[in-house]
Amino acid sequence: MPxxxxxxxxxxxxxxxANAIVRLGDMDLVKYETTSxxxxxxxxxxxxxxxxxxxxxxxxxxxxxxxxxxxxxxxxGGLADTVRSAAEEAGPLPPSSPLARKAQESVEVLHAAMGVxxxxxxxxxxxxxxxxxxxxxxxLLAEIxxxxxxxxxxxxxxxxxxxxxxxxxxxxxxxxxxDTEVKAAIVVRAIVADLGRIVGARVQKIREAEPEDVxxxxxxxxxxxxxxGRTQAYRSLRAQDKRRIIEVRSQVGKLAIQPxxxxxxxxxVASELDTFVGDxxxxxxxxxxxxxxxxxxxxxxxxxxxxxxxxxxxxxxAAKVLSEAAARAQSxxxxxxxxxVFLRRARKAPLATLTGEELRGTLESFQELLAQLPxx
Length: 376
What we know:
Layout: H1 5-25, H2 43-70, H3 79-88, H4 98-128, H5 131-134, H6 137-164, H7 171-174, H8 178-208, H9 214-229, H10 232-236, H11 239-256, H12 263-280, H13 287-311, H14 315-329, H15 337-348, H16 356-371
């Protein structure tokens, strides 16, 4: 509806939605964290967080106000009058036409989404009055982080569903910030996968360590946690997950300064950390990554089929297509341990130069790994 007033109204809503998503995503809560897991949410923290809470509410309400202004709920004529009044500004539009029905459905979606988001504002206020949140710094940060992420998701759904009522659209093409969020989730998954591999190897070394090597292993584990704390993945973790990392880092730090720490004690801490990092892999279950993984999985499968077909008459081109498929599949890193091994090797090996049976074997191995990947 490029020329209709109705489209103009939608553009104003979508511009407000994009602005809200950006503002809800640019707050860095890391500066409000501490290196201690103890301590209540004192007055100083509340003074720091009050503007964050205020801005969160204001940013969301700004969008809701635009929706109300552009598509007010009509107490008498209902939604159909809202749609017809917008359409009449650009010319006659029969209420029974397919376009009118789509427009009405889009407005209904907007109003329903507006109600859900408004309810979230109420829930945020209730959460900020909860004793469990008021008395704990980390719970306060976690709740603020959770609500801001929830609002971003709900606003994205408002855009996607209302646009989807008018035409067949892809979420990545219409939801503001979708690609940025996908890329951030891919980075988190990859770094967490590497952390899991590093911690798993460290657990094995601690298990086999001689008494004189226990302190060195504690120091190495401390360094590895410090390195993780400087990554983008750490910044993107939920507050409560960061709290657990800090707690373990403190325990390891105490053991690292002991001349002869007990091996069973370090082993217990490292094993607990190993289990915790494994739980962080639940990021794979996020819907935004599941959709991405299916697309990449399908595209890589097509490329490998092409490469296998070319192998007999143009192996050099087949090797090039294999290399391109491996590069594309890097965004799946962290999805499956066996595939991760292949992808790490692919970063170092010049796949585009493979020939003969080595090329065939690599193609077949890659296809088998993709076939076994749980993308459902």
